[in-house]
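REQUEST ID: PR-0412
SUBMITTED BY: lab tech R.K.
PRIORITY: routine
TASK: structure prediction, single protein chain
INPUT:
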Amino acid sequence: MNGVLHKYFHWGAIASLATLIVWCVLWETVLAPLKPGGSWLALKAVPLLIPLYGVIKRDVYTLQWSSMVILLYFTEGVVRGYSDTNPTSAFMAWGEAIIVCVYFFCAVLYLRPYKKAAKRMARELLEKVNKVSTRK
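STATUS: complete
OUTPUT:
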């Protein structure tokens, strides 16, 4: 994969994760909280801080597991987008779902060359093992 494009996927993952953290905090504290004055639901942004350092450092394992965990936020966004009666809250929910999609696709496309390399290495190792076993 092109190095520049690979770099853009990494930066897209960082930007979308950081945006999602800010989006969730603003949504539940200022823009459309469940209760006037803010909601404890803003704490849903805290688990997003856990993978942030790994994503910044390009840790492949962190990008892999976070791309699966982030789908919980997609689910929340879709459910609340359909069910919230407050139009601002519904808008924020759909925005959350879109930001999650951006993160997911950036993370998956960033990880793609690593997955191909791992498959190639596994295939080469299997071929070596098969050669050794056929010699005996």
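NOTES: The mean pLDDT is 90.
REVIEWED BY: pending
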